[in-house]
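Support request, priority: normal
Reporter: lab tech (M.K.)
Component: structure prediction queue

Hi team, I submitted a job for Alpha/beta hydrolase from Paenarthrobacter aromaticivorans yesterday, and the status page still shows it as pending. I've pasted the exact input below so you can check whether something in the sequence is tripping the parser. The sequence length should be 351 residues. Please let me know if I need to resubmit or if it's stuck on your end.
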Amino acid sequence: MIITRAEHRTEVIPFRARDNTPLSLVHVTSPVEVTKGPVMLVHGSGVRAELFRPPVRTTIVDVLLEDGWDVWMLNWRASIDLDPLSWTLADAAVYDHPAAVEHVLNATGAETMKAVIHCQGSTSFTMSAVAGLLPQVDTIVSNAVSLHPVVPAFSRLKIDYLTPVVKVFTPYLSPAWGYKSQGYFTRAIRGLVKATHRECDNIVCKMVSFTYGSGRPALWAHENLDDATHQWLSGEFAEVPVTFFEEMGRSIKAGHMVAAGNHPELPGNFVAEAPQTDARFAFIAGLDNLCFLPESQQRTFDFFQKHRPGKDSLHLIPGYGHLDVFFGEHAWQDTFPVIVEELNKTQEPTS
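Reply from support: The job had stalled in the queue. We restarted it manually and it finished. Here are the results:
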């Protein structure tokens, strides 16, 4: 039996990060009995928790519910469902993810939990775990990038040279400028994107590629998306602060994540010593990813292997890119089984 979204019961639960920033958790239940522990889904930058419930035949949430998991989706400070602010990944690592894990464990009574993390939800969550801030998380499935961001050459040029220009005019960059202008600068950016991206008729799809990668499109293959999802994504992307792009630019130059700001809870160098976590990691990457190259996950897997050989795993998935891993039309048969298998490897039934 496959659970459909119509059968979901959704509860949005507000809570506070450790610096008092408002966040929320989306708790999704279904008629299927929960026989396994909690699993938290963590989205990327400038999107929201609903990223994991696109209008496809079967979502990752459907599959997890059917498999008996207690599903929680996190809206951390990068979520477009929250008021925009100038966040950094280090802020999320220290303040958001530990608070979210604590909230889920308190709500469920579980002693441990698992996580499926994507993109900048993955970098920030991995930073938190490696720093020893998430000891209750025992299995982490990471998509696209974690500790070693490697991007196409053109993306690096955009981060190095466009970010300072954008910062002069606005604290944010937003794919939503495709359908709502916020002054002459945003209209100029939209005009530039229209002139240089002619891969489809969806202006937000084009703006996403301009913002996050180097392809046409950059975050998915059009042939992997059905028409409904291609239209749906127009409302799923919005503000991303310049502070994030500056932090990511420094990390790309260093070859590994470099925390921004003053956060003594985080190491100065995330790869200088062994990860301070017992969580088993499963690293996933689409081989066609043009946002973060598959080498990103390969490097982090190699780093983990160096310190604890044989514990973690790496899956490089042909035919997929960055986000179609989650909302591709056939992801239910191509990528979701990998995620579910990894979550179940160390899972014991709760009853």
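Residues 301 and 314 are 7 Å apart (CA to CA). The first strand starts at residue 9 and ends at 16. Let us know if anything else looks off. Ticket resolved.
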